[in-house]
Write a structure and sequence with these properties.
394 residues, alpha+beta, six-stranded mixed sheet, five-stranded antiparallel sheet, 11 helices, 22 strands
């Protein structure tokens, strides 16, 4: 949360945090300012002080009206002089940063996050500033969500589960044609058609695909990040993984939900995969609470799968099948955020929001994965992605 920035600046030994960009190309800038715009702005926060934004012209006026930033630094005169000199602003940013830092920064060490442009870092070093790259400082602050952020992620989750539900209805209405191909309105139901419909359903709820969606049919789901080709045909009697991670267009936050479904008779081995994954989901969520050691939660999943006879790369690094990926990841403004399930000795804290995604993958069959989003609390984790069953036999 925002209140964590000062302690983190102390931890990393910096006197100020500096970054730049727009809400659409740098989620950190949006989180730090609340300014939803394509305009490139500069953010500066001195340790122990309120942050400020430097910008110019109409963009600066919108920062004052639309962001939660209370202090600004006007670069309009600098930019105007550059234009009068027939010079590109982008090629002369040293003058903007010189004006800002001489007037607003009095410390010794400037911290910049990983995404801060290398060209600007070198420029500032050439101007005599002591620059320290603090890769994770904003990510660590973002890891613990406010009540408002959790409510927004729940809204994203509602849009996601609603869109998936509508896809499932389309599958229910499919006939089964030759070679077990699903037929929708007399034509093969392809991954391309599924994703196009999914995008429409998401837009109706004010969301859009953050990157793409995963739609893996049958044995292709063995590769758990196989996106699916547009002409892949959905088929009956095989598991179909649908992993959807959209972003709310206005609020910018993301949900991440996976459902695996089977149309028609469910093969015995696939049913066993579903039973194991569903059990792992329940056991994992029971362990997910404030103060829980991250690897204890990991092991709740992997030991449950082992009980059902399925391998995992956590228990057996040489595993070729079973669960060959991590338990999940933090979510927020990005699909993958902190905390990381690979930070095994760390603890979950109240306010962390996790996408938890147990799965089992067998070569020649495919995969079964169930993914939901949870807010960590002092008690049992609160599920944010509701309104759709975990196991879908159609």
């Amino acid at each position: 949360m925002q209140k964590d920035l000062d302690p983190l600046m102390e931890k990393y030994g910096i006197d100020a945090l500096l970054t730049n960009g727009s809400a659409f190309d740098n989620p950190n800038v949006y989180w730090l300012t609340g300014f939803r715009s394509s305009d490139n702005i500069i953010y500066l926060k001195n340790k122990g002080e309120e942050p400020l934004v430097a910008s110019a012209f109409l963009a600066l006026e919108r920062v004052k009206k639309e962001s939660f930033i209370k202090h600004t630094h006007d670069l309009s005169e600098i930019y105007l002089n550059l234009l009068k000199e027939n010079k590109k602003i982008h090629d002369n940013l040293d003058r903007a940063y010189d004006d800002l830092l001489k007037k607003q920064f009095s410390g010794k060490v400037l911290g910049v996050p990983d995404e801060f442009p290398a060209s600007l870092l070198v420029m500032l070093q050439g101007m005599g500033y002591d620059i320290k790259v603090v890769r994770d400082i904003v990510s660590e602050a973002r890891a613990t969500k406010s009540t408002k952020e959790i409510e927004i992620i729940k809204k994203a989750g509602d849009a996601t589960t609603d869109a998936i539900t509508q896809i499932i209805e389309m599958v229910k209405n499919c006939d089964i044609g030759a070679n077990k191909v699903l037929m929708h309105n007399g034509k093969p139901f392809t991954v391309g058609k599924l994703k196009l419909a999914l995008d429409h359903f998401l837009l109706d709820k004010g969301a859009e695909s953050a990157e793409d969606s995963i739609a893996a049919v049958g044995e292709k789901g063995f590769d758990w990040h196989y996106l699916g080709l547009a002409d892949d045909k959905l088929k009956s009697e095989v598991p179909i993984i649908l992993d959807v991670f959209p972003r709310l267009k206005q609020e910018r936050y993301i949900a991440d939900v996976t459902r695996t479904f089977v149309k028609g008779p469910v093969p015995k081995r696939v049913r066993e995969m579903f039973e194991a994954v569903e059990d792992a989901v329940n056991t994992t969520v029971d362990a997910l609470t404030d103060g829980a050691i991250i690897d204890d939660v990991n092991m709740a999943c992997f030991n449950t799968l082992k009980k059902h006879g399925f391998d995992s790369r956590r228990l057996n690094p040489d595993a070729k099948d079973g669960m060959t990926h991590g338990l999940g990841h933090g979510i927020g403004l990005e699909v993958h955020e902190l905390p990381s399930t690979y930070s095994r000795e760390d603890s979950y804290l109240e306010g962390h929001v996790m996408a938890i995604e147990p799965g089992v993958y067998l070569e020649g069959i495919g995969g079964v994965r169930i993914e939901n989003d949870f807010a960590v609390t002092k008690g049992k984790a609160k599920r944010l992605t509701t309104g759709i069953e975990d196991v879908l036999y159609i």
